[in-house]
Design a protein that fits this description.
With 55 residues, this protein is α+β, with helices and mostly antiparallel strands. It is built from one helix and two strands; from the N terminus they run E-E-H. The two termini are 12 Å apart.
């Protein structure tokens, strides 16, 4: 799965995460953790350490 977050006014990509494994997203809790990790990365420097990568 790929998650892309763009600034709506400029169209600039603020965050792009690829290779997120759907197999590890089994519950609403798993999804909540993923969203929290993405929000953290977006709020800081745009880098994310996503636990749900396939590689």
């Amino acid at each position: 799965m790929t998650v892309q977050v763009k600034d709506p006014s400029s169209g600039r990509v603020e965050l792009l995460e690829t290779g997120i494994s759907l197999n590890r997203l089994k519950s609403s809790r798993d999804i909540s953790v993923l969203v929290a990790e993405l929000r953290y990365g977006l709020a800081h420097d745009g880098t994310v350490q996503v636990r749900y990568r396939t590689a």
